[in-house]
Amino acid sequence: MNPYTSTVINEPGVMNYKDYKVEDFLLDEAFIAWAKKADGDAFWQAFFQEHPTQKAIATQAKNMVVLAQEQIDQQQKERLKSRILHDLEPEQSNQEEPRSLYRTMAYWPAAAVVLLLVVGLAWFFAVRPSKLFGPATHQVYQDLVKQAEVPLVEVYNAEEQPKLVVLSDQSSVLLQKGSRLSYPKSFDGLARRELYLSGEAFFEVAKNPEKPFFVYANELVTKVLGTSFTVKAYENDKKVVVMVKTGKVTVYANKETRIKTTATANRSTDGVVLTPNQQIYYNRSDAQLLKALIQKPALQDLGSAQFLSFEFDDAPLSKVLQLLEQAYGVDIVYDEELLASCKLTASLADEPLFEKIKLICLSIDAEYEIIDAQIVLSSKGCM
User: Fold this and answer.
1) Which of 293, 314, 348 corresponds to the end of one domain?
2) Quick one: 19 and 112 in the same domain?
3) Which DSSP string do the residues of 327-344 spell out, in sequence order?
4) CB 104 within 8 A of CB 70
5) How many angstroms separate the first and last alpha carbons of the chain?
6) How far apart are CA 308 and CA 67, in angstroms?
7) Which residue range forms the structural domain that includes residue 217?
8) HSE-up of 26 (CA within 13 Å, CB side)?
9) Of the candidates 219, 193, 243, which has an alpha carbon nearest to the alpha carbon of residue 141?
């Protein structure tokens, strides 16, 4: 069995180290604490025996921790500084001056490298990657999983093809390559259905009004009752994206790391509500939420939309726009009184939504823009 596609059980507070890289170990407090010890540890010995390929990676990370710990010692830094300054000082004797200069030039590069290593490692462990490279996404995922109140199943997809995960309530998750998902084996006895995502996945959620469904993905929380939607929350991306295909979801910033009380979990007044063909961007740099339409809005309620021809012959523009709103589930804002006399004769059957809007604008000399997931038309009216 491929260990990178296997399903494992994580007890609360225990991380899945088998996929760790050097930087992941350096961000793990439990690993750092172990690396600083002089003696061994039964857990790590057993882990290396089960995952021998990780031993070299962990050893490299451990050596960096030990080196940083040793070099950051204040007395050693002072001694190193004194030694460098001493080598740079000219000798008192004129006879020894050429030799002193030669010795200084010879030893200075090595001393400079050591000093830079000391300062660099100290700065790395003091500042941490969250300040160097932005939010430590993998660490956010780890922290969320650690706070889980029940044991979690974790699935990691290392394959090229999406991996289908079926939950105990028959909800399904299509997990993309390089993504991981943690969730309870069963939702029985739980007030909420809570999942934790790092990467990208498409969710189809079974309806259960008594047990809301939450997806924690980096700094965003998505709450649904029964719908289908996509979440993109890759480790190094600057944005987290939620896109709705069917139903309705509520998205809000995860300021408290995770929802702690049932009262908080059941509230629906906070956050931004998304409906089909809408998406939200969360800019991780400034913690801002931006609501928008997806790039290619799809027809909604195909049972009735398939009978729509989108063939118009001298049709009132207001009727055309109302039809588009119904077919795509979007809001189109315009001045009804100003456009009351506008008529449209056109064939829009094979055009995607935004092409339909462009053709309409050309016919009535109008312009459009997307504001807060709404299509806003601007026109001087029709003669």
Assistant:
1) 293
2) yes
3) HHT-EEE--TTTTTT-EE
4) no
5) 72
6) 70
7) 137-293
8) 23
9) 219
Q: pLDDT at residue 354 above 80?
A: yes
Comparing CA positions, the residue from 380, 374, 367, 378 lying closest to residue 341 is 380
Residue partners of 30: CB distance under 8 A and separation at least 6: 15
pTM of the predicted protein model: 0.56
pLDDT at position 21? 81
How much is the average pLDDT of 277-292? 85
Alpha-carbon gap, residue 131 to 27, rounded angstroms = 13
pLDDT value for 265: 39
Tokens 């315009």 correspond to: 334
**Is 239 inside a domain boundary?**
yes
**Residue 12 pLDDT greater than 80, yes or no:** no
Question: Residue 172 domain-assigned?
Answer: yes
217 phi/psi in degrees, rounded to 5: -135, 100
Instruction: Using pLDDT thresholds of 50, 70 and 90, give the confidence band for residue 3.
Output: very low
Q: Are residues 352 and 331 in the same domain?
A: yes
Q: How far apart are CA 245 and CA 274, in angstroms?
A: 10
pLDDT per residue over 75-112, tens digit each? 555 655 565 555 555 544 444 444 444 444 444 444 44
CA distances from 114 to 63, 140, 271, 330 (A): 16, 33, 50, 62
230, 258, 293 - which closes a domain: 293
